[in-house]
Specification:
Elements: H1 16-19, H2 31-34, H3 36-47, E1 52-56, E2 64-70, E3 73-79, E4 85-89, E5 104-105, E6 109-111, E7 118-120, E8 125-127, E9 148-154, E10 157-161, H4 169-173, H5 176-179, E11 189-198, H6 202-210, H7 215-218, H8 222-225, E12 231-233, E13 240-245, H9 267-270, E14 273-278, E15 282-286, E16 291-300, E17 303-312, H10 321-350, H11 361-379
Helix pairs in contact: 3-11, 6-10
The structure holds FE2/S2 (inorganic) cluster and fe (ii) ion.
Fe (ii) ion binds near residues 208, 214, 218, 219 and 338.
Length: about 400
């Protein structure tokens, strides 16, 4: 038997090194990053059961239908006549034809291209041309509506979940909506988006985002703005790993602060950058004046599409291109440095002979948390991990935040 393929990643024993306490835990084995069997199970067990981001709200106006892939499966998303989001499996209930191959406009009916069966925007089957010219026994259109997929929105992000048994999105998010309530992200708009292909496993990209251990060496310029000693914990209960920098920017560079801050922020929000890795594949950087959002779409074990989107608050009507250009180029310079190092990580995993190393409790607790969330999905455990009791007390060497989030609301 091929020893690579008889590994059962859905049993707790496979994750024993992850389940150790942080101080004793190991990182993940190379298979988690390079193995096709692992990748296939991950698509099913992780992306097929999680709340996965599929769009920003303003990308799905009424009359628009979008096609997205979740856990390797295609779904279509639109709004019904009341403006409510609806998501369906992308196949016709007659003989399974794909309903849409790409984003498109939709009027009142989703129509199959094959025999023109029509569904309203709630997925009900409403027309079956010439179907029962000879009667079909026991056929009731009510039984053949499109298969619904769960869909929900938080802030300006729209999420879908293929698994009907997974906890609701509000439970998944834990205290994040409360933590970020002051930004009122539901009113922010997307202004620019680009896809970047990265030759690395999606988890390496997320793990790299979660830790600032590498800051001084990989990002010498960023380290001037976002200093290691200004990073603090920002991690309550919820399916996320979070950190904050306060103050968000030192005086050396002002690339991040060239645009005006959102109106109405608390002193803590106005002075901080919030860096959230929402499980499984959302990387959210919330600054006082903009959001840089990265969504990771796994393509193969060693390839990921990273969709990067800038969001601006409603109080920023027009931005001078020069001010936005500074923010944009700063992010992409930093991102290029991250891409180079995670691609080196992928090559290292592929070079053979890697055995899992140890994690730094001071800097890599979020990775341990992330690995445990991953293990939970693989073994079929639907639970939310707890968080710090408060943001005031230093933990794992992070020091005392001068302007902690105080948990209002
Ligand atoms: S397959 Fe869709 S109408 Fe026949
Ligand atoms: Fe980085």
């Amino acid at each position: 038997m091929n020893p690579k393929t008889d590994i059962d990643w859905t049993t707790e024993t496979r994750w024993a090194a992850t389940r150790q306490a942080l101080e004793s835990a190991h990182g993940l084995p190379a298979q988690a990053y390079i193995d096709h069997d692992f990748f296939a199970i991950e698509q099913e067990q992780v992306f097929g059961t999680s709340w996965v981001p599929i769009a920003i709200a303003d990308q799905v106006p009424a009359g628009q239908l979008i096609v997205r892939t979740v856990g390797g499966q295609s779904i279509i998303v639109t709004r019904n006549s009341d403006g409510d989001l609806r998501a369906f499996r992308n196949n016709c209930r007659h003989r399974g034809t794909e309903l849409a191959a790409a984003d498109c406009a939709v009027a009142n009916t989703i129509r199959c291209p094959y025999h023109r069966w029509g569904y309203n925007l709630d997925g009900d089957l409403i027309s079956t041309p010439r179907f029962d010219e000879v009667p079909v026994v026991g056929f009731d259109r009510g039984d053949y509506g499109l298969h619904r997929v769960r869909i929900a929105q938080w802030g300006c992000l729209i999420f879908a979940c293929l698994d009907p048994t997974t906890m609701p999105l509000e439970t998944w998010l834990g205290d994040l909506p409360q933590r970020l309530a002051g930004y009122r992200l539901e009113h922010w708009r997307s202004v620019e988006s680009r896809d970047i292909e990265i030759k690395a496993n999606w988890k390496l990209i997320s793990e790299n985002f979660q830790e600032y251990y590498h800051l001084g060496w990989v990002h010498p310029e960023l380290a001037k703005v976002s200093r290691v000693e200004d990073h603090y914990r920002y991690q309550g209960p919820g399916m996320y790993c979070g950190q904050t920098t306060t103050p968000v920017s030192s005086d050396d560079r002002n690339d991040w602060t060239a645009m005006p801050a959102a109106a109405g922020l608390s002193q803590s929000d106005a002075s901080s950058g919030r860096f959230i890795a929402l499980f499984p594949n959302v990387l959210l950087s919330v600054l006082p004046n903009h959001v840089f959002l990265m969504v990771l779409q796994p393509v193969t074990p060693g390839r990921t599409i990273e969709t990067c989107t800038f969001l601006l608050p409603p109080s920023t009507a027009d931005v001078l291109e020069a001010d936005f250009a500074a923010t944009r180029s700063f992010w992409f310079d930093v991102n290029d440095e991250d891409i180079a190092i995670v691609e080196a990580g992928q090559r290292g995993m592929s070079n053979g002979g890697f055995t899992p190393g140890r994690l730094s409790p001071r800097f890599e607790e979020p990775l341990h948390r992330f690995h445990n969330m991953l293990a939970d999905r693989f073994v079929g455990r639907d639970r939310v991990l707890g968080g710090d009791e408060n943001d005031h007390d230093p933990r794992l060497g992070t020091g005392t935040n001068p302007l902690p989030w105080v948990g209002q609301g």
